[in-house]
Specification:
The protein is an alpha/beta fold and about 190 residues long.
């Protein structure tokens, strides 16, 4: 096989030299080369990188400790603290009022984006009530189902309504959102939008 390739290369060089010198080559003097199958290289199997494996396994991929989230129909994003230690998620809500509608318990509340001033009033059916244990005093909270946009995901997730005004971030995202959907790298931030 190598000899045939070498002959072909020498022949090409010969022809180029002849063309420059205007020498005519007689067909009988050209060595005959057998037609061979083209050389086909086997496909190279690429090893997947960790990032590729994560993207295939987790819909949100690798996210940081702070990510933007949206609560439709609100237009603007709120910054959320990603907390792998928290089982559930919570959102800072104002003007929380429980009421009854057609014999069912409901909750009305407002979510305000402090960065943009956007405010939206929500009325949601009560999903459940929980008690958060605190050092000084236990805190009762309402939990409602909220539509959440995080990355390309649109999820209907239970959120507790809380006074997160003393915290830097109005939303806390817990394991009920990220489990099976993301790997958290605390050295990163705002990777989703």
């Amino acid at each position: 096989m190598r000899l045939k390739n070498l002959v072909a290369v020498v022949f090409c060089v010969f022809l180029i030299g002849c063309a420059q010198q205007s020498v005519v080559v007689e067909p009988d003097s050209v060595p005959k080369v057998e037609k061979t199958e083209p050389l086909v290289c086997p496909p190279v199997k690429k090893e997947q990188t960790l990032a590729q494996k994560v993207k295939e396994s987790y819909s949100l991929g690798i996210i940081g400790e702070v990510e933007p989230v949206r609560f439709p129909p609100m237009k603007g994003a709120l910054l959320a603290r990603i907390d792998t230690g928290a089982a559930g998620s919570s959102v800072y809500a104002q003007n929380i009022q429980a009421f009854e509608r057609e014999g069912k318990k409901w909750v009305s509340f407002d979510i305000v984006n402090s960065k943009t001033g956007e405010k939206h009033h929500f009325e949601k059916r009560l999903y459940k009530q929980i008690t958060i244990k605190r050092q000084l005093e236990n805190e009762g909270r309402y939990v409602v189902m909220m539509m959440l946009r995080i990355g390309k995901e649109k999820l209907n997730i239970p959120f507790s309504l809380s006074d997160r005004g003393r915290f830097d971030y109005p939303v806390l995202i817990g394991r009920n959102v990220i489990k099976g959907r993301a790997i958290v790298d605390p050295s990163l931030s705002r990777t989703l939008y």
